[in-house]
Design a protein that fits this description.
The complex is a heterodimer of chains A (520) and B (233). Chain A has 520 residues and is an alpha+beta fold. Chain A has 15 helices and 12 strands. Helix content of chain A is 53%, strand content 14%. A 5-stranded antiparallel sheet of chain A has the order 2-1-5-4-3. A 5-stranded mixed sheet of chain A has the order 7-9-10-12-11. In chain A, strands 6-8 form a two-stranded antiparallel sheet. In chain A, helix 8 packs antiparallel against helix 9 (327-358), helix 9 runs parallel beside helix 14 and helix 11 (401-419) runs antiparallel to helix 14 (477-487). Chains A and B meet through helix 8, helix 9 and helix 13 of A and helix 1 of B.
């Protein structure tokens, strides 16, 4: 599975989908939460404003004043030092609230345990206190925060009235006049400074917000999962579509074999991105087909070439043995056998050389080869060296001496065979190339043959090649020459004027002696 | 039989010619397509051994052209042995096919078989009067005793037997029994015929003066012909 490109594609697109859809859902969740909180805060502000307004009514009578003196916190200091939110000021014992459901809380609110705290501050006449206590209440109808609670403290920390305060609520510390929102555990609270540095705190449990958010979140998750699922399904289908042409290509390729190289990928039907691949594959198939065809015809030709001398060898022996004969006849038969055997071994040598050429001449041992010397030597070894005219100047190449000798031998031998006595060989160096020319005044080669003379087993005149018997009659000499030249990074070509002359021209990279001298 | 060998490989050609001659055939040869076709069209050969790969015209072309005029049996000799090659040769009208390298005895056997097929009889033994001729062994028995025949004599007998009851002219005998290198001395056929008569019995080879010679057809009672015993028609 891990090895499957399609599987990995699916995995990646799943990751991307989960990332984007999840991110988007999270963003929506936060936005909704924020807008709900803003609404909630608005409601808290309204409540606080209402309480503030009530307090101000009474502060007009001089009842609510800052008795702590100035702006300082006076009496508050002592707890402020202990802890930031000291528990000591906690007001209601609101036990019910701890174990609360909303209902229980509502019940406790205002009455119950708070009754014990319901004692007027010293300066309040009891009647006014009662009145104030009664009027300090939350406005009705809060949409999101129906379960608000509040507390009103005088500047000295005396809790004027607390309603539904959660356990642990304490006199809030306020540095300066301002509006403070804060989160207090499960609750959201707003504190403002009222008249006479009194403190008004309104709070509400966050739970209703969560309650309103939950279905939205649930829908978001469902929708997100749906989108991811659909996306993956789509991706699966798309990847199928993407790999379809690849499968078609694979099918075509697997249909090919050494025996039938007919099939090709239809590039017109392949998508743009795969067209290059299909083209490359098709041209590879073409090359393979050609290589196979070449190999097949090479094998067929080789066996064909071996069969004729073999037939002679076998037939001659059979004939000689078929009846008693005179010695003279036996000698003649053995001579024929010998010639055939020689021809076969020559052919086999050449075939082996070509096979080595196909394997890039393993064991080729390059050294400095003095081509001038080599040409002179080859000509000197000829049965009639005088029949070849030689023109030389200095020419050194980096290559395999044995192979290069074979090259010169083949070319000169070929020229002698076809050109009779007027053969001219020249070798020289020009512009970093060693140029070997072998020219004969033979019958020439017709243009139609020129393209093929380097092909294996190609013969212009089969009869003459056969009549000559041995070396050079195999149709392999020139193809061997070409292999040797190519292996040395050179070029070989042939020009011919029918009835006039034939010129073989070999170009090899010259060995750069100046570089070598500098190195030493 | 008179056979044309068409083969460009000199060693193989001379080998074939020698082997066929030693087997009692009259053999001509050619090493080149045009010449081979010319000969094949000009002479009534009993068989042509044809190499496929030839300079000039190749074996296929020669066969195709030849078949338009003559039904001479053709045995293909080739180094190409794919099924396609064989089918092509046989479809063009070749009678047999032999792939190089071949055993000489097999070649000679196939040549004899093609000769028999030409006579319209697949039976290698032929009864002629009191003589029994075995075309495989190239031997003749007369009353249970072997008769020694020279290759030429046997060849003439075989030719006469191949068309029993028919009169075969001296020219035909020349054409089928002697190759182009033989000196066609005018009385050579007569000499061979007279030897055959001595060895097999006079009544078996009849002379039709002015026409040629014949052996009696199967079931025909050998009778002394008018000029029986005389050598010249």
């Amino acid at each position: 599975m891990i090895g499957s490109l399609r599987y990995r594609l699916l995995m990646w697109s799943a990751l991307v989908l989960i990332g984007t859809v999840g991110g988007f859902a999270w963003f929506i969740h936060l936005s909704v939460l924020r807008s709900l909180e803003e609404e909630l805060d608005g409601e808290l502000e309204i409540s606080a404003a209402a309480l503030d307004a009530t307090l101000r009514l009474f502060s007009g009578r001089g009842l609510i004043e800052d008795t702590t003196g100035g702006f300082g916190n006076g009496g508050r200091d002592e707890w402020a030092k202990d802890d930031r939110y000291p528990p000591g000021r906690s007001v209601g014992m609101g036990k019910g609230k701890d174990s609360k459901g909303k209902d229980g809380k509502g019940k406790d609110k205002g009455d119950g345990d708070f009754m014990g705290n319901r004692r007027p501050p010293p300066m309040f006449p009891p009647r006014v206190w009662e009145q104030l206590y009664g009027e300090l209440r939350l406005p009705p109808k809060s949409r999101i925060s129906p379960e608000q609670y509040f507390g009103v403290w005088l500047a000295d920390g005396h809790l004027l009235k607390g309603e539904g305060l959660p356990e642990g609520s304490k006199f809030p510390e306020l540095e300066d006049g301002g509006v403070w929102f804060r989160r207090n555990g499960e609750y959201r609270e707003l504190q403002i400074l009222g008249p006479g540095r009194s403190v008004i705190m309104v709070g509400t449990p966050m739970e209703p917000v969560k309650r309103r958010l939950d279905p939205i979140d649930r829908n978001l998750v469902l929708a997100g999962l749906g989108i991811i699922g659909l996306g993956l399904l789509g991706q699966w289908w798309i990847s199928r579509q993407i790999f379809k042409p690849l499968r078609a290509i694979a099918k075509t390729a697997s249909g090919l074999s050494a025996k039938s190289f007919g099939g090709r990928i239809d590039t017109a039907k392949v998508d743009l991105e795969l067209r290059d691949l299909a083209g490359v594959l098709n041209s590879t198939f073409d090359r393979l087909e050609k290589a196979f065809a070449r190999q097949t015809s090479f094998t067929a030709d080789a066996s064909h070439e071996l069969r004729t001398p073999l037939a002679v060898l076998r037939g001659q022996a059979e004939l000689a043995l078929s009846r008693p004969r005179e010695n003279r006849e036996y000698v003649k038969a053995l001579q024929v056998c010998q010639t055939s055997a020689e021809r076969m071994s020559d052919l086999v040598e050449r075939l082996l050389l070509l096979a080595r050429a196909d394997a890039d001449f393993p064991g080729m041992a390059p050294t400095l080869v003095d081509m001038t010397k080599l040409v002179v030597e080859v000509v000197a070894e000829l049965p009639e060296p005088d029949s070849v005219e030689v023109a030389t100047s200095r020419a050194v190449v980096w290559g395999d001496g044995v192979l290069l000798r074979q090259l010169v031998q083949n070319l000169v031998g070929n020229a002698l065979k076809h050109g009779g006595r007027s053969v001219r060989v020249s070798i020289r160096t020009r512009e970093g190339r060693v140029i070997l020319k072998v020219r004969d005044k033979g019958p020439g080669i017709a243009a139609g043959h020129l393209d093929h003379i380097f092909d294996r087993f190609y013969r212009i005149d089969k009869a003459r090649a056969r009549a000559d018997g041995g070396a050079g009659g195999t149709g392999l000499g020139l193809s061997i020459c070409r292999e040797i030249v190519l292996r040395h990074g050179g070029e070989i070509n042939c020009q011919s004027i029918v009835g006039h002359e034939t010129l073989f021209r070999v170009e090899l990279p010259a060995f750069d002696e100046s570089v070598e001298n500098r190195r030493q | 039989m008179r056979i044309l060998v068409v083969e460009d490989e000199r060693a193989l050609r001379s080998l074939l010619v020698q082997a066929l001659r030693e087997d009692g055939h009259a053999v001509d040869w050619s090493e080149e397509g045009e010449d081979a076709l010319h000969k094949a069209l000009g002479t009534a050969y009993d068989l042509i051994l044809l190499d496929v790969m030839l300079p000039g015209k190749d074996g296929w072309e020669i066969l195709a052209t030849l078949r338009r005029e003559r039904a001479t049996p053709v045995l293909f000799l080739t180094a190409r042995d794919t099924v396609d090659d064989r089918v092509r040769g046989l479809d063009l009208g070749a009678d047999d096919y032999l792939v190089k390298p071949f055993a000489l005895v097999e070649l000679l056997a196939r040549v004899r078989a093609l000769g028999r097929r030409r006579q319209g009889s697949g039976n290698p033994t032929i009864q002629l009067g009191s003589a029994v001729i075995d075309t495989n062994l190239r031997s003749v028995l007369r009353g249970g005793e072997a008769v020694a025949l020279t290759a030429r004599e046997y060849a003439i007998l075989e030719l006469l037997l191949s068309r029993r009851g028919e009169v075969i002219t001296k020219t035909e005998i020349y054409e089928h029994v002697f190759d182009e290198q033989d000196d066609s001395l005018s009385n050579l056929v007569e000499v061979h015929i007279s030897h055959l008569r001595k060895k097999l019995g006079k009544e078996l080879i009849q002379t039709r003066r002015g026409y040629g010679y014949r052996v009696p057809a199967e079931g025909e009672t050998p009778t002394e012909a008018d000029e029986a015993g005389q050598d010249a028609p």
